[in-house]
From TrEMBL:
UniProt source species: Domibacillus iocasae
InterPro entries attached to this UniProt entry: Methyltransf_11, SAM-dependent_MTases_sf
Gene3D superfamilies named in the record: Vaccinia Virus protein VP39
UniProt name for this protein: Methylase
Gene Ontology biological process terms, A to Z: methylation
Lineage: Bacteria, Bacillati, Bacillota, Bacilli, Bacillales
Keywords: Methyltransferase, Transferase
GO molecular function: S-adenosylmethionine-dependent methyltransferase activity
Residues of the Methyltransferase type domain: 47-142
Amino acid sequence: MEEAKQKVKKQFGQSAEQYVTSRTHSTGKDLAILTEWLQLKPDSVVLDIATGGGHTAKALAPHAAHIFATDLTVEMLAAAKRHLNQSADNIFYVAADAENLPFLPDTFDAVTCRIAAHHFPNPEAFVQEVVRVLKPGGQFILIDNIAPEDNVLDSFVNRLESLRDHSHVRSYTVSEWKKWLGESGVSVVKEEIRKKTLGYPEWVRRTTSSPEQIQEVDAHLLSADLSISSYFSIQAEKKEIQSFTIDEWMAMSQKAKK
């Protein structure tokens, strides 16, 4: 477990600025939907876990009193702060492990985590920590890449992610997430699954470290049979991959009121 977290620190420390500018992370209708779903009050205190380039914190900052943006990687936090310094003065940056948060129970009105949990080696602990730091009645929005429930598709997409990013742990299924949320005492009150199209050249270069690694990712995608290629909408011209899609889940859960 500790080895997985060291891989995350190394990977994101090296590519922090690329995640700030990444179109996958800096754009998306989910950033607007976040505020619609949460309906934050002006005095709200919000925690954004694994903030990455700070895009979620930036979207929420105008709607809350204080945002605490945490990340395991200090270099990533520094990049996010440089990115956000001119646009928000109510964001505080804290180096923290998502599975062992340095906050007291019942602290936050809302917690968010966007496009990050597939790097967490112990998602059950992460969910338990989220529920612990949420105030009674507080809301938790999770947005992440997910694996299909079909085992063949699950194996294909997780192998793809691992080849491209050695810090990838697993894209979990919706059924896995719902099990962990339910066991922690929260219920999903709103959810949405969407297809997310990824421009392949930018996506593959963001985390790979050599032409040989890119070739491995290329080969895996090009090896897909018709059913897999169709599911992930793999687009290629003369064996040059242009884009593909993955599944993303956005879910809002609520902690019970006392």
